[in-house]
Design brief:
10 strands, six-stranded mixed sheet, 247 residues, four-stranded antiparallel sheet, alpha/beta
């Protein structure tokens, strides 16, 4: 059973078509990198997967549960239940600035999963250690570097124990040194076989850490394959041109 199945996904904003028949699947434990030029629809596709945007037509199944079936959505309760299997990490962190790091992590599971506060705090401290931020529990986001903020955001997503993690260009707002800190955490999750979709412009990461690469362009997935196939033996000349400019 695929963790995620997407078929003929379509989305337009008014007369501006953004997704024009996107089809792919993600297996349990896979790290899937999504690459391609800006404006190809990569972020919109992710947002449709977790119901932050409503698609116009197509099919989305999460662990074989239909989030979108022939263009129709289930009721709001069913949507929330299906999407609770996924977590998302955004490019701009989306941390609460008035809360401490610990409070940012504790709030979601206490509110949504009915954790007790001591249970949530114990889990939060363990995850902060995992992402290399032990000792930052009482810091505010304003006291952290961009890389530290993004690692907090990853830990916060993991607090909800998702089956799938979605990353929307998690390093695009960071300088090269801080980018390395964040990618190291994502690589470790890949080694642990966390199921992930990572929209990224970091070609080195896609080449080295992904099990599968999707190349998006012109609002569709032009080609998918292993990193070896996409980076060294692509079938479509648009991929060769794109990769040569980046690498």
């Amino acid at each position: 059973m695929s963790m995620i199945t997407v078929r003929d996904l379509r989305k337009a904003f008014g007369s501006d078509s953004v997704l024009e028949g996107v089809t792919f699947s993600v297996e349990k434990g896979e790290t899937v990198a999504v690459i391609g030029p800006s404006g190809a629809g990569k972020s919109t596709m992710l947002r449709c997967l977790i119901n932050l945007e409503s698609a116009d037509s197509g099919e989305i199944r999460i662990e074989d549960q239909p989030l979108l079936d022939n263009g129709k959505y289930p009721d709001e309760k069913a949507r929330r239940k299906i999407c609770s299997k996924m977590g998302m990490v955004f490019q701009n962190f989306n941390l609460f600035p008035h809360l401490t790091v610990l409070q940012n992590l504790v709030l979601p599971p206490v509110n949504a999963k009915k954790y007790t506060r001591p249970q949530a705090e114990e889990k939060a401290c363990a995850l902060l250690k995992k992402v290399g931020l032990e000792g930052k529990e009482q810091s505010r986001p304003s006291e952290l570097s961009g890389g530290q903020k993004q690692r907090v955001a990853i830990a916060r997503a993991l607090m909800m124990e998702p089956d799938v993690l979605l990353f929307d260009e998690p390093t695009s707002a960071l300088d090269p040194q801080l980018t390395g800190e964040v990618l190291a955490v994502i690589r470790e999750l890949a080694r642990e076989h966390m199921t992930m979709i990572v929209v990224t412009h970091e070609m080195g990461f896609a080449r080295e850490a992904a099990d599968k690469v999707l190349f998006m362009g012109d609002h569709v997935i032009i080609e998918e394959g292993t990193p070896e196939e996409i980076f060294y033996h692509p079938k479509d000349p648009r991929i060769t041109e794109f990769v040569s400019k980046i690498l």
